[in-house]
């Protein structure tokens, strides 16, 4: 804090709860708080991890700087003997996408999930020591969403006991894999398996791409970076790559063989493991993306909330101070639902992590029964949380007025780095349509005796939900979680049933599905919002220590669901889940909750425990010392290196001269 002055001190005094305890709730436990707090400070205090110039560096320098940081980070991890949890926190606080994300986040999980014990024994020790660096090479120039449409081929040659990996067309070029462009020595490459002239679907293969001696591509391999991406800095620290194969040979045992095996004589043997396990790495990453959404959204909200308390505009009486923009009801109605969403996503992310761990344990014991639930929840929640977060970051930029548009606000880079999350690991609409299929299947099986389970269990009470009438009579009734849950369940169930009824009128169900896909996506949004609301409510049923902490969370939970109810009141009214009067009461209660958030707003964002280094924002500084720092930063821009700019003599002077002679 500059000179020890805290310009937000008065705001912090208004807090009605124990901020330290809230930090622990946000982190998940004392243990995770301790690690996160220690590692965030370690990163913030190390100049090697500075991010100051990132948005101004040319691509080559930016990329080299990322290589330097990654190599230094790896050294620190080893020197300090950091655990996996600590290393992953270090990656989080370094806050720079790099090839290491794909190596640790996808290459290793793909081998773990789809490799046999033998394959894991061979490849994982090399990968863990980073003696090989891997990427996840699935998407091609012509196909990303449609994985079954990939064109790269892996043809078994029984003569040599090898697969021949080949890119038969331009559109079969691998395109997008992170870490591929300039760094990876290996990749898990997804290709169409062909044996004895027959196709056997898409499988993963471990392929060496570059020589370990001098990093040059192996014979038959063309490889490079796909070029600059959206925004300054941002995801341009990553070498997303292009890759082509010209009949590249790999040994047979480099096909990942947990799901299917190819024998020495070229026979394909299916194991008991469902083929969808080939998609398992994506399910894992989608789950991590949901957890990450709360981080990105909370970061933007922290910046916008602190700045909204610092910024004053209009409303001065008798020469007194102007109004803090955070006191405008419109500012609150845009900002506080995002604050509440950040907390909501935190808790649903925690729950999804639990669900994923449970599914993984079951898979190890060959119990695949919960795989569809894992797929539906990860796909749906990934789509919902990333869409809200991307839009939320942009809203936070607008909430910061003009200064939000400066790179020094941290928001443009945060948006640019975050927004591809709506596309990667499955385009959000494509994933929502996956959930829609599962929802329609669930509805069609109602009455067959097969009870829906997990997050679809509410559909088992369909008769009741179709009869349901909301009995809210006064605004405070909307604080009753049981009433809220039923309203959200009835809305989701009725929207799904309505789609199913319309679908049943089509002779060709696929045609019907395509025709109704926009309505189906709306039903999926309702279903996913119900999951988030229900997990927030479940969280409040836990023992949560600390003065006022649970009360604050109750208020945020109320803001979250009442905001959704208000925003989607069209759904609630059209399905007759609430009356216009009840919808209006919900909005009245929402306004009351906004006033309860207001005094706690700064403390609620302090509870994220973000360092100024991590936030990377002058507007979001902990001490609120915004104006002097913005002024100071402007002078550091390279354009201000000289008073008269380069190009003056060439372009400005002749222009001015020409105007002068025109006047004369
Ligand atoms: C400088 C810093 C230095 C720091 C250094 C520190 C060093 C060390 C630190 C260590 C720290 C670790 C850090 C880790 C960080 C991790 C972060 C990871 C970051 C990741 C970045 C992301 C990059 C992006 C990657 C990608 O995008 S990869 C490519 C993703 N692609 C997709 O998602 C494609 C989407 N398409 C599909 O998934 C499918 O095609 C489809 C599902 C849409 C359709 O498939 P298909 O046609 O085959 O299937 P059907 O629709 O016919 O369905 C058939 C049935 O299968 C079920 N189904 C479908 N999918 C699944 C599934 N996944 N699981 C289970 N079941 C599934 C359907 O439901 C159908 O079922 P039914 O038969 O019952 O109806
Ligand atoms: C930053 C970034 C990093 C990436 N990293 C990797 C990586 O490491 N490895 C890797 O393999 N891939 C990676 N990808 C690729 C990524 O997974 C794909 O781009 C993503 O899955 C979307 O596929 P697509 O590009 O084919 O989009 P498309 O499917 O072509 O989408 C285009 C439009 O069509 C719509 N659409 C498509 N199908 C349907 C449908 N059935 N119904 C309705 N609408 C539809 C979509 O909603 C979208 O609006 C990365 C992408 C990005 C942006």
Characteristic key phrases:
alpha+beta, six-stranded mixed β-sheet, peroxisome, binds flavin-adenine dinucleotide, binds ligand LY3KDABY, Acyl-CoA_oxidase_C, globular, ACOX_C_alpha1, Butyryl-CoA Dehydrogenase, subunit A, domain 2, 664 residues, three-stranded antiparallel β-sheet
Ordered list of secondary-structure elements with their pairings:
Elements: H1 9-13, H2 19-27, H3 30-44, H4 59-79, H5 84-94, H6 99-114, H7 117-128, E1 134-137, E2 153-157, E3 162-166, E4 174-175, E5 186-195, E6 198-208, E7 221-225, E8 241-245, E9 248-251, E10 260-262, E11 268-270, H8 280-310, H9 329-364, H10 371-399, H11 411-418, H12 428-445, H13 462-467, H14 481-504, H15 509-515, H16 517-540, H17 549-567, H18 569-574, H19 580-597, H20 601-606, H21 612-615, H22 626-634, H23 648-663
Parallel strand pairs: 1-5, 2-5
Antiparallel strand pairs: 2-3, 3-9, 4-8, 5-6, 7-8, 10-11
Helix pairs in contact: 2-3, 3-5, 6-7, 6-8, 8-9, 8-10, 9-10, 9-16, 9-17, 10-11, 10-12, 10-16, 12-14, 12-16, 14-16, 16-17, 17-19
The site of ligand LY3KDABY has 40 residues, from helix 4, helix 5, helix 6, helix 8 and helix 10.
Describe this structure in words.
It is found in: Peroxisome. This is Acyl-coenzyme A oxidase. Keywords: FAD, Fatty acid metabolism, Flavoprotein, Lipid metabolism, Oxidoreductase, Peroxisome. There is one protein chain. This protein has 664 residues and is of the alpha+beta class. It has a domain at 107-271: Butyryl-CoA Dehydrogenase, subunit A, domain 2, CATH 2.40.110.10. The chain has helices spanning 9-13, 19-27, 30-44, 59-79, 84-94, 99-114, 117-128, 280-310, 329-364, 371-399, 411-418, 428-445, 462-467, 481-504, 509-515, 517-540, 549-567, 569-574, 580-597, 601-606, 612-615, 626-634, 648-663, and strands at 134-137, 153-157, 162-166, 174-175, 186-195, 198-208, 221-225, 241-245, 248-251, 260-262, 268-270. The strands form three sheets. Strands 1, 2, 3, 5, 6 and 9 form a six-stranded mixed beta sheet that branches. Strand 2 and strand 3 (162-166) form a beta hairpin. The radius of gyration is 27 Å and the shape is globular. The model has no long low-confidence stretch (mean pLDDT 97). The structure holds ligand LY3KDABY and flavin-adenine dinucleotide (FAD). The site of ligand LY3KDABY has 40 residues, from helix 4, helix 5, helix 6, helix 8 and helix 10.
